[in-house]
Write a structure and sequence with these properties.
164 residues
Amino acid sequence: MTRRTTALAAALSLLPLGQPLLLGSTTALATAAAVLSTQAAHAQSAADYVNAGIEKGESGDSQGAIADFTKAIEINPQYAIAYSNRGFAKSNSKDYQGAIADCNKAIEINPQFADAYNNRGIAKRKLGDDRGGCADYKKAVSLGHQSTAKWLNSKGGAWCRNMR
């Protein structure tokens, strides 16, 4: 059962049995509303941490970005974007194994997430696994990753384009 369903079930359990839903249920409904709005605030703050992490990463603060993405993951452990972005930040910090692990988790959560394949490909190449990196780049392109598609079709991507 999801946390939202559990919270709603707990709040509804406070309703007196045999009573019409709107009579005597103000406290239970208020409790349910409070719990659900708190969960919405947590979901929003996970996105806020991801956005802050992106800003830090773009300004060169990879460690700060990793910390923000980690906070987002603590709030929402199924947030594939946070794992993929943390993987990219770890690559920028030369933690390539950690980057691959994070991208693997993002792909486990969402197998259609092109950015995670692209980011994992970057880390694999940094570790010298050109074949693995190329396979990930091609998978990212097959899922619609436009910047990787442009690169793959450029002179710089010829090595991968021609790899079988």
